[in-house]
């Protein structure tokens, strides 16, 4: 049985991600009985995800602030503040930030996507190693652990 779970901001794990962006894990599979993952991404201009697809979860992105280009299959869409996109599992997709910065809300169901971020990302509570970067091999390994497939570089 799933019980209500509160995630105070001070308890939310923050991970350094691709390009120095921050992924804050708000709710993970453990907190939701496997139902979903909720995260916020604090990203800068030109930050972009690899073109990829999810085999296990559906994903929703909401642009809380800023602007982004989102690819869903071969379709390209511009999203501004308040814009949202639903990305069913199996649909190749990616994004690129076009504003100076953006705040994105990510919801994935069922839960578990946080494993990818945790496997390759750096927990911001610890010291940052000189020259920290997520190598493509580690990103591919993290994606594979979560049932994601990297199809190509960012668009």
Core attributes:
2 helices, seven-stranded antiparallel sheet, 11% helix, three-stranded antiparallel sheet
Task: Describe the structure in your own words.
By secondary structure, this protein is mostly beta strands. 11% of the residues lie in helices and 42% in strands. The chain has helices at 114-120, 136-145; strands at 13-16, 22-27, 37-44, 51-54, 58-65, 68-72, 75-79, 84-87, 93-97, 101-109, 122-123, 148-152. The longest helix has 10 residues, at 136-145. It is globular and about 35 Å long. It starts with 12 loop residues before the first strand and ends with a strand.
- Tell me the β content: 35-45%
Order of helices and strands: EEEEEEEEEEHEHE
Instruction: Identify low-pLDDT runs.
Output: none
Question: Structural class from helices and strands?
Answer: mainly beta
Question: What's the average pLDDT?
Answer: 93
Q: What is the end-to-end distance?
A: 42 Å
Gyration radius, in Å: 15 Å
Q: Name the shape in a single word.
A: globular
The percent of residues in helical segments reads 10-25%
The spatial strand order of the largest sheet comes to: 8-5-10-3-2-1-11
Number of helices: 2
Note the main sheet: 7 strands, antiparallel
Number of strands: 12
């Amino acid at each position: 049985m799933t019980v209500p779970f509160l995630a105070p901001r001070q308890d939310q794990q923050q991970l350094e991600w691709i390009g120095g962006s921050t992924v804050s894990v708000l709710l993970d599979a453990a907190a939701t009985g496997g139902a979903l993952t909720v995260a916020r991404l604090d990203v800068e201009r030109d930050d972009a995800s690899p073109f990829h697809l999810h085999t296990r979860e559906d994903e929703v992105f909401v642009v809380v602030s800023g602007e982004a280009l989102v690819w869903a299959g071969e379709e390209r869409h511009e999203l501004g503040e308040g814009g949202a996109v639903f990305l069913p599992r199996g649909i190749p997709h990616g994004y690129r930030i076009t504003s100076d910065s953006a705040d994105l809300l990510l919801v994935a169901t069922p839960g578990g996507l946080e494993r990818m971020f945790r496997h390759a990302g750096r927990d911001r509570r610890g010291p940052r190693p000189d020259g920290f970067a997520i190598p493509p091999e580690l990103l591919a390994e993290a994606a594979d652990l979560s049932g994601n497939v990297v199809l190509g570089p960012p668009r």
